[in-house]
Amino acid sequence: MSYLQMENIIKRFPGVLANDNVSVDFNAGEIHAIVGENGAGKSTLMKILYGEYQPDSGRILMNGKELVLRSPRDAIKAGIGMVHQKFMLVASMKVYENIILGDEIAKRGVLNKKQSIETVRKISERYGLQVDVNKPISEISVGSQQRVEILKLLYRKANVLIFDEPTSVLTPSEVESLFKVFRNLKKDGKTVIFITHKLEEVMKTADRISVMKNGKLQGTVSKEDASIPFLTKLMVGGEIPKTTPRKNIEDKKPIVEFESVSYISADGVRRLNNMSFQIHSGEIFGIAGVEGNGQKELIEITIGIKRKFEGTIKFNGDLLNKLDILQRRKLGMAYISEDPFNIGTCLDANLIENLISTRYRDIPFSKGLLINWKRCEEFTESQIKTYGVKAASVKQRASTLSGGNLQKVVIARELSSDPIFVLAAHPTKGLDIKATSFVHDTLIRLRNSGKAILLISANLDELLTLSDRIGVLYRGKLTGVVAPPFDREQIGLMMLGKDVAK
Ligand SMILES: Nc1ncnc2c1ncn2[C@@H]1O[C@H](COP(=O)(O)OP(=O)(O)OP(=O)(O)O)[C@@H](O)[C@H]1O
Ligand SMILES: [Mg+2]
Q: Engineered SS bond to 36: which of 40, 173, 370, 427, CB 3.0-4.6 Å?
């Protein structure tokens, strides 16, 4: 008998059967991966196991005994914890405060502070979860914040730890450390369940893999019986279409020109240091680098969120420095952001509103002061179809879309304005294999049709396949710009600040 069983779980949302009679089991001391396309029902299933959603029918058993989980509180009592895609920490509070927040022992008073910190220290040592307990959350990296979330669960004695796409926010070395933590948890007899879109990770880390499709469980396989092509087939039910070949582009002209751009942040740190480069028409210019080396500032300066910097940026020959975001959009800039939850969309608005939000004042969407809602609706319908957004209706609130589908909405909106230049920041984060391939294809098509693209990605493979040239960012400086044939090792060294450009 398995340690934990989900039996015949059914969960319906308006217009969609998110979980269609799913039965799956989890063992103690195993790492179990959940994979499947965007909108397949993975997060829903895990939220049910965490007591956040109640199933319409079906049951959950632990050691053969039925568990009734009316809320996450019940789940935590039963030893089940979850780390969400969006962390739930209080930014202004210190690490240890976040860990013990709301826990019964801590409530008994200040006297226990020392004892609590000691407990946290022990847990952190045991599982390899290094954090500075006295720092405020706002001052630690995303990887450390995730460790705090894990410590929070372990502090509450969780035996089952659920992770929703934990690696999508991490740098490659942080991913390695997380997997080490997974193995330590497993050694200790705990159950680790993680959702991911990266099959390489699955094959490296998981003991068993469950595949979901359209709300159904396609099957659970052990790693020995699985392979990437096999899992892909189970997930998408066929082959992934090949991307469009790159066309030879002649007559390239500079579209975006950075000249000696430097940016010093409010705390006096030089986040961008004398950056000069050009992005041409018909070119994908990739930026490689370990996250936190100036990518965020480069994005904000390019699209106009930050406008106080040294140097100049030109767009099609015109000076951009003083223009705001809307003015830059009018000139033909588009921006695909990495985070559809916080910056890409308005979660309370529906899909129509989200798709036209950047240009509802333009023809054909408005006539004079009136918005032509029918046109907007038709437009949204067609975009949803083109981009394969899984939604019950165009009037559905954005907050009810799955993570990957939300990202597709952002991409559809940004590309539908027929831009001259696209800033694509981690555009495939959270997307499934098919959607990733679609976005790659779209970027190559844009390039082939003469658009300029700045591609910022933490995924080196993505950069190597898509880029015409790659600039490597290290501590706010371009350590070099390389052209094909790309040398992965050379780029890796440059990412660590070694000046090895040939
Ligand atoms: N609160 C909700 N209200 C309405 N529909 C919802 C809600 N939560 C999820 N859904 C729908 O249920 C389906 C499954 O969503 P879910 O978030 O479980 O997918 P997922 O497999 O996690 O996808 P992704 O890989 O994109 O995160 C989707 O069609 C989604 O729109
Ligand atoms: Mg999800």
A: 40
